[in-house]
Write the structure tokens for this entry.
Amino acid sequence: MRSSVLLLVALLGVACKPHRPGNVPPVRSSRDSVRVPVPSRDTALENRAARLELRVLEQEAQVDALQSRLDDARREVVRAMAKLQSLATRAEAASGMAEAEIALQALRTNGGANGSQLSPELLQGNELLQLAGSEFDKQNYAGALYLATEAKNAAAAGQGRVRGDDPGSGASRKGETPFALPLRLQTTGRANVREGPGAGFKVSFTLETGTPLIAYSYVDQWVRVRDEADRGGWIHQTLVGRRP
């Protein structure tokens, strides 16, 4: 009887012992939570990328401009003129070439050359004048006069850029970089055109998607443009693309 009582007490003691689960992971506090670092915006890198994209557009525009004036087409015009009964005389051709030389020299003096870097108009004018001299030596005076006139036109366009006659040139702003040639762009969405290169400037007008624009220069990610209604201003680079 005594042994039965002791066995009953032992069983009750085991049943009343608190349960302690083993290897339970501790509760992680909020301080222990892993924090994912938030990447910071690199404005300088964004501006550099924007400038590179604009440079690509600029280079593409220059290629298009050069393709529109292929040497083969120009030589074909010169050859056609040589076959015609032209009234151009040696004196007229020589006079035209002299005028072109003076115009190109004036462009060089007034800012068409920055050190060893020549403006696109000055480069083109010099090339045309060299071709004119070559045709003059071949006694193709009509062709020489035509090429000399084209050289003078190039010099006049360069002078207009230097004087700021080009629409959209305006007063240069700090950090403003002109394109080598005006770019034919269009809006890629509804876009605001502002009075200056920044979101803090007042909105001058708003353009709809696909509006044709001419771009002249840029500051960081802002492009100076002018629309077909001759309104000028600044638009963010992400809102414009190359016109087909």
Remarks:
- Residues 165-170 have pLDDT under 50 and may be disordered.
